[in-house]
Design brief:
With 466 residues, the chain is of the alpha/beta class. The protein has 13 helices and 25 strands.
Length: 466
């Protein structure tokens, strides 16, 4: 049955115009799936990574930093629709600061780096089939953004979702688009090569890539890291941050005992019985930011040697074909993580960076902090903290998860949070203009919609009575 399933999946991908190299990669993981490969990484097979080099300790000359950044391409992962926040377009088009979107700020960051160092610095977006048109339309107004004849984006591949019971491609006539899924951001390397952009960059004299998520505005172009990476001679490097209790679910790097190589372990690769090891921020003190660097020549060479299959660890993602319908058929999505490539390249390394390099927006709570005065946008597009520590916000998902509901409850924008430590909102609260939060504040659910009046100051401990 599984051989038939593979053939049907391959035929479906070919009929959809998927590149043969991407079909070969999918086939590699399909065979692992039918062999029962789980992708689990046990705790007794690894050692924690404890003492990476730290960005704060680096001494890189301005000349070396500028030269390295001048040979670098900036790549942003931009395949997400923001469906968890009720969006139906590219998440990077969401306004985050005074009407500016993620996309606008990313462009500002790249333009500033170009001007500051006198370099061309290409900017590329890896889009999905759901985000490509929206993103390219939004970028069309930037007539000077493209470098040479490079496109501003390249498409992530897609693959069939597989029925969990027999591993055949699922059929869902109610919405055939739900029969497909992206292969995880580990597809970066395949899509980068099959698009032709990798070879074109090499022909133009570029050598390095800096990759990050488009919803992480902390990952601005950084010449110091570029200079360090170029000087290290490493083929690959990951940026990691010191863990806090809020980061317990984030993937982390570890040292594989068998060959002493660095590897990435995510929650999906951790046996349930060992999750207490995974979430221990003292045992594994650094988390993976999903900001990474790689040598273009090393990637091209490795892809040739491995016939386009890097062999990243399999991630078996079990879902329903319609995520909004729990009664729809159970499916398996074959995925890989781009950060797992660290184990592919001999001599790969990691660097510890500050929290300013990791400012992702995964929820409306994250968005509220980023929109507030807890952060300031500098002239070069970088976001810097105006509050230390950064306040923690927990908004009631029943009323704030969907972006339209969220915006309705903050009609005048975010409250002042630069003096806040924690804002916990339970129930339906609307914030009028000029609200100020100080210290630790909890708003309790009163069973009916409530309004925080304009100019109110919320302080601990009796904030609910303000």
């Amino acid at each position: 049955m599984s051989e038939m399933g593979l053939k049907r999946a391959q035929d479906k991908m070919a009929a959809a115009g998927i590149h043969q190299q991407a079909i070969d990669v999918f086939s590699h993981y399909y065979r692992q799936l039918e062999e029962g490969v789980s992708g689990f990484i046990s705790e007794d097979s690894i050692e924690p990574l404890l003492n990476p080099p730290m960005l704060s300790d680096l001494a890189v000359s301005e000349q070396d930093a500028a030269a390295a950044l001048g040979k670098t391409v900036i790549i942003k992962l931009n395949g997400g629709l923001g469906t968890s926040m009720g969006m139906d377009k590219a998440k990077s088009l969401l306004p985050v600061r005074k009407g500016q979107t993620f996309l606008n700020i990313i462009v500002d960051q790249v333009r500033h780096a170009r001007a500051a160092y006198g370099i061309r610095l290409p900017l590329l977006f890896m889009n999905s089939f759901r985000t490509d048109a929206d993103t390219l339309a939004a970028l069309a107004s930037y007539s000077d953004l493209a470098v040479a004849d490079l496109d501003l984006g390249f498409l992530q591949n897609q693959e069939p979702k597989l029925r969990a019971d027999d591993l055949t491609p699922v059929e869902w006539p109610a919405d055939p688009s739900l029969e497909w899924c992206p292969p995880g951001h580990g597809d970066l390397y395949t899509a980068f090569a099959t698009s032709g952009i990798l070879d074109r960059l090499l022909s133009l004299g570029y050598r390095y890539a800096s990759v990050s998520n488009s919803d992480n505005l902390g990952a601005a172009p950084n010449a110091t890291i570029a200079g360090w990476f170029a000087g290290s001679g490493a083929p690959y490097a990951a940026e990691i941050c010191r863990r806090t209790p809020a980061d317990r679910k984030g993937g982390h790097l570890a040292i594989r005992k068998a060959d002493r190589r660095l590897i990435l372990r995510d929650t999906a690769q951790t046996p349930k019985a060992e999750m207490h090891f995974f979430t221990d921020e003292f045992r594994h003190p650094f988390f993976h930011t999903n900001n990474l660097w790689f040598d273009l020549e090393a990637l091209a060479r490795t892809l040739r040697e491995r016939k386009s299959v890097l062999g990243l660890p399999l991630i078996k993602n079990e879902k329903t074909v319609d995520p909004a319908d729990s009664s729809s058929p159970k499916v398996i999505q074959i995925e890989t993580a781009m950060g797992a490539a660290i184990e592919v390249f001999e001599g790969a390394t990691a660097i510890g960076v500050g929290r300013d390099r990791f400012l992702p927006v995964k929820t409306s709570s994250d968005l509220l902090v980023l929109r507030s005065d807890a952060y300031e946008v500098q002239a070069d597009g970088r976001l810097t903290k105006a509050a230390d520590p950064t306040p923690v916000v927990d908004l009631d998902n029943n009323y704030y998860k969907i972006i339209s509901d969220f915006d309705q409850r903050f009609p005048a924008g975010a409250p002042s949070l630069k003096e806040a430590r924690h804002l916990d909102v339970n129930g339906d609260w609307t914030f009028e203009a000029g609200v100020r939060v100080i210290g630790e504040v909890t708003l309790e659910d009163r069973g009916a919609p409530q309004i925080i009046a304009a100019g109110a100051i919320l302080t601990e401990p009796a904030a609910g009575d303000s």
